[in-house]
Each structure stands twice: as C-alpha cells, then as structure tokens.
Amino acid sequence: MTTEQELQSLFNTLDRDQDGKISINELFLSPGLSAVISSETSTSSPQELLLQYDSDEDGSITFEELKKAVEKASNLT
C-alpha cells in the first residue's frame, strides 16, 4: 500500500522528461520502479497498465490515471 504522496513521488521519478505523463518507454527505463507500479496496480506489465488505464488512449499514463489504477487495486491509503 502507498500514500498519495508516495505515489506522486514515484510518478515524478518515472516521468523523466517531466511532461506530466509516463510513457511506455519511461516505464521500461526503470524496471525496478515499473515492478513497484505493477504490484501496486495489480497489473502484470507496463503494457497491461496502459491497456487498462490509459483512458485518453495517448500511449502514456497521467498521475490521475495511475491513481485510479492504484485505487482500484485498493492499494492507496
């Protein structure tokens, strides 16, 4: 389980270009952090995360999309 502040910190670390989105490439560049996201969202891979939670279908995950995924997995405290 994670707090919203911890999730924001993780998101900011993964968002290497600081554009407010995590791309599939950014997820693959940080496999350890990507594994944390997979466990917190109950998804098995970055691709699955994008397929399930990329609501605007732009090929990346915003903080709000990531937050929804973590909330759905009941891992946000």
TrEMBL record:
Pfam families: EF-hand_7
Species, as recorded: Nostoc parmelioides FACHB-3921
Domain of life, per lineage: Bacteria
InterPro entries: EF-hand-dom_pair (IPR011992), EF_Hand_1_Ca_BS (IPR018247), EF_hand_dom (IPR002048)
Entries under Gene3D superfamilies matching the protein: EF-hand
Domain EF-hand stretches: 2-37, 41-76
Designated name of the protein: EF-hand domain-containing protein
